[in-house]
Amino acid sequence: MSLWERLQSVLVAASAVAGTLAGLALPIGEAAGHVVLPALLLMLTGVFVQVDATSLGEARRAHTVVAASLVLNFVWTPLLAWALGTVLLGHNPDLRIGLLLLLVTPCTDWYLVFTGLARGHMGVAAALLPINLVLQLMLLPLYVMLLGGPVTSIALGTIVQAVLLVLLVPLAAAVLLRSASSRWAGAGLRERVLDPVASASAVPLLLVAVFAMFAWQARTVVEHALAVVTLLGPLAVFFVVMPAVSTATGRALRLPRSQRVTLTMSTVARNSPIALALAVAAFPGRPLIAVSLAVAPLIELPVLALISQLVRGRSDAPAG
Prior knowledge:
There is one protein chain. By secondary structure, this protein is mostly helical. The mean pLDDT is 80. Helix content is 83%, strand content 0%. The protein has one domain (3-313): Na+/H+ antiporter like fold, CATH 1.20.1530. Helix 3 (29-49) packs across helix 14 (272-282) and helix 13 (257-268) runs antiparallel to helix 15. It has helices at residues 3-6, 8-25, 29-49, 56-61, 63-88, 93-103, 111-117, 122-147, 156-216, 218-223, 225-229, 232-252, 257-268, 272-282, 287-316. The protein has 15 helices and no strands. One of its GO terms (molecular function) is antimonite transmembrane transporter activity. InterPro entries: Arsenical-R_Acr3, BilAc:Na_symport/Acr3, Na+/solute_symporter_sf. It is a multi-pass membrane protein.
């Protein structure tokens, strides 16, 4: 894990604070608002550049863990997200939508890092990435319309357009970059140059997007600070329930330890960058949704780091 990745949670928090202060002190809100979505789209392009579709072959050889991951990510988690939002955030529709967008989008990037740290099965983890990405593209509009309820107040077509912009445009750009680099420079140069550059740019672009988001919505952040804090409750419940459910599922299915680890990390990690980009594109008039998603990594990343260390610690413990 690079220094950027180890410090990501701290850097995101610092960017949020710096952006809020800058937005309150300087007249940069409108200009900053035009930076958020392009920065996120560039970041997602870099993430998708690193996706290798050839890893799908591993999914056929580990169909049990893949099936368990899909059920937990795309059936159980949306229902849990709806229940948490209804029970704990029923008074705040924007936070409910933010929570839903976050929880129904399985991670397609940094869960690989934490899976490696926890000594999970990296082949299966990589195989799950393109599957999760495609299913997000197909199911996100349905989740928002079916589980968001009347508070969404947005046409299905608008959500579909936002999903196409946020996912398909970076994905298409990434495919073109990989194809062009392989054709003109060879796969070796792509692996030595394109992939490392894409990986190294992800965190800086996320920090730019977070800074611009909070500068753009600085007054919204200040006015609704207490409301955003209430999001911590359902997030805490999710990050306690999901590791327990995924671990129990892995044991019930008698999965090997490395696959149980992969199942846990792939069902706990969420895709806040994609959810944030979608919120900016689909709900431009409701900034609290995007603000709540910008805060989410501050909770998620330390939790993932803790889980990876706990799982690795158990595997290192001597049998007794």
